[in-house]
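Appendix C. Worked example: Peptide/nickel transport system substrate-binding protein
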Amino acid sequence: MKKLILASTMLVALTQAADARDIVVALSSDLRSNDPGVNRDGNTDAIMMHMMEGLVGYTENGAVKPLLAKSVSMSEDGLTYTFDLRDDVTFHNGDKMTADDVVWNMNRYMNPDNKWRCLPDFDGSRVVKLTGIEKADDDTVTMTIAQPSAVFLGLMARPECGFTGMLSPKSVGDDGSFVAPIGTGPFKWDTWKKGEYVHLIKNDAYVSPENDGKPDGTVGAKAPLVEGVKFMVVPDAATVKAGIQSGALDLAEVSPDLMPEFKDRDDSKLIVAVNNGKNLFYMQTRDPVIANPGVRRAMAMALDLPQLVAAASNGTGKANCSMIATNSIYYSETQQKCLPYDIEAAKKELKEAGYNGEPITIIANRRGNVPSYPAAIIAQAMMQQAGLNVQIEVLDYATQVERRRSGNYQVISQSVSPRLDPALMMSFYVGDKDENTSLMWENPKAVELLDAAYRETDQDKRQQIFDDFHTLMLADMPGLFMYDMVDIWAAAKGLEGAPVWQGNPRVWEITVD
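Step 2, the predicted output written as structure tokens:
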């Protein structure tokens, strides 16, 4: 009864919010911090994306393009990047953005006292060592790195980094403490009522980067076409459903099992959007039972992957056994190859590997917005047909994550959030398990290919690296990639545009009746 009363109260609040006719978006949790890239999560990134912009941004297909920069050039040795800034960018307070502002922002991000989440990606701890940030003139900034890197610009564009967004120095008080974000994006900071909502207002002075008239990732056309956006904290699925169907909410992510509730209605519609995240089975290559690649290949060949994906995704997903998403510029003909569904071949692999029916446990969780449990159940039934003794262990999500990070598992059914450059996705799985027990694959050749993918900047040569990586992965099968993540959103019938990108609501270039 208490839950019903709370849901009813929330719905009344939603209806009142909708009277102002901003676009109203439901998020499952509150903003964690309004300081870009600090104390963040996915919902925080989604809000910050509407206010914050970096020098570069990601396109729909994972390429990196200039955003606040007019152009970016790299020196022949790959160590110096020159950013020519656009001359039509102003902060939300009306101040023109200059090279001094860029230098101030980058020095602030690189200061450990400010606890930027992505500092280890740029201080040499992980991937890139940023060694110099200099103003060449009022419209030009140069940055130098210690070694050539194919992912330097991609790291800057990441949502997890707050997009390395450019803030007005007036976002910070005289004592150096953060006050509120004064960015450059299509919407401006207005109000944060903690636990209830964040309200942004339209930036009437916003100028989109050069574009073809369409939204394109975080670049492209970005005009704010509504007066404001209210991000409402609505964790209850029943309230989300009622809010969409009553018109109190304009946009909300819903779990796949609620899809029938929104089909063929006059007041709402469904939006199915693929992102670059992955649904996969991690395999512990050090486990005594599945250490033999033949056992892992047999597990893969026992799966009728299209059938599994159709069932686990409620018909919304498409089988993809590559680490690279189907909408990536690097998704080639090679990336489309999978081990064949072949029960007899799987049985032969198991016999040659000396498998004698030892139990194999798949760890899953029951979160409604991911296919962890249904994929595990379907895979169990399919693998048993090949003679694999597969069991399921259901854990809460936090415990499952801890088991993966500690390496204490045989197989884990998990979803991994988007990483738009394939090298960044590779780095989540590949490396020395003695140094990082959460990693999946320590094949020396795979590590060598990852290192090459970090260094090589030529797109054609990178394509070959990623194709070689996929071919090696099919032979070694350290993990079984099933399909790209699918986002299911419900929207008001009158909402027009492309309101979802990489799992985030994206409300520029959006109208609503």
